[in-house]
Amino acid sequence: MLTHAPRKRQAHFCAPDLHLRPPRGILGRIILEIIMKKLAPILLLSILLAACSRPPETTATDTLPWRDNLAAAAAEARDNNRLLLLNFSGSDWCGWCKRLDAEVFSTPAFQQYAAEHLVPLIADFPRTGNQSPELKAQNQRLLERFQVRGFPTILLFSPGGELIGQLGYQPGGPDAFIRGIEELAAAHRQRPAVALPGPTLPRN
Questions:
Q1: Residue 4 falls inside a structural domain
Q2: Is residue 27 domain-shared with residue 100, that is, in the same domain?
Q3: How distant is the alpha carbon of residue 142 from its chain centre?
Q4: Measured between alpha carbons, how far is 100 from 87 in angstroms, rounded to an integer?
Q5: Closest by Cα among 84, 37, 70, 192 to 143
Q6: Which residues pair with 165 in a beta bridge?
């Protein structure tokens, strides 16, 4: 899976451009020094005021209330008859994971849908930050069980813990992603009664 670093917004700064013709002679230099000493605090104050008045840059920071405990998330999905959405992510380095979070998971439309229909569980593999040995072992076990080869990989499970489909990053925002979930869920409900069950979440 190819990843790319998010683009960094370049900061631009426009300094005042003074076109002063310095007076000649000793007296002229003295006058120029006095003028510059008077102007320097004013220019500095103007720069500071301009920086303070600039509107802050905003980024999407709100995301889903991800669970990270497999057993608790599976029990929640079962008890509330909801689909479990398992997100394999490299949250601090995977460019496509960040893009999926910004375009789908962090949107009000998807958050509302998830609050009504999903239990979101994340198996994160960051390159920085601290994870407990137990959490690392759980995530690695999930990665190996479902043979995940790239991030982001999104697995969808029935309330009973059976794998019913897989998603990844796709353009179209929350509407397209929700449509993908609904199609997988509908196909699972309409499958023949004699169909073999899919892989299931580990019990512990």
A1: no
A2: no
A3: 21
A4: 11
A5: 70
A6: 156
